[in-house]
Predict the 3D structure of the following.
Amino acid sequence: MGPLTSARLKKYLIDDDTLDEIKDTESAKEYIMENCYFQYIAEENIQTRGQIEGLFNYILDVRYIYEEH
């Protein structure tokens, strides 16, 4: 929820042309609070952790994964 330099999701939402209701950081913050959630899954093995992340990215059709890689 910090500034755009450290809150990439807010920046992606503001830059997303398909989300007309998000025009600034405040509307992006509201959108995140109303529509997003997360849950940690503790996994020490880095390979298994990467596989879990990839699986969830695929299953959930993560919108902004390409900007991250």
Notes: The chain has a mean pLDDT of 86. The helical segments are 8-15, 25-35, 46-59, 65-68. The chain has two domains: 1-37, 38-69. The chain has four helices and no strands.
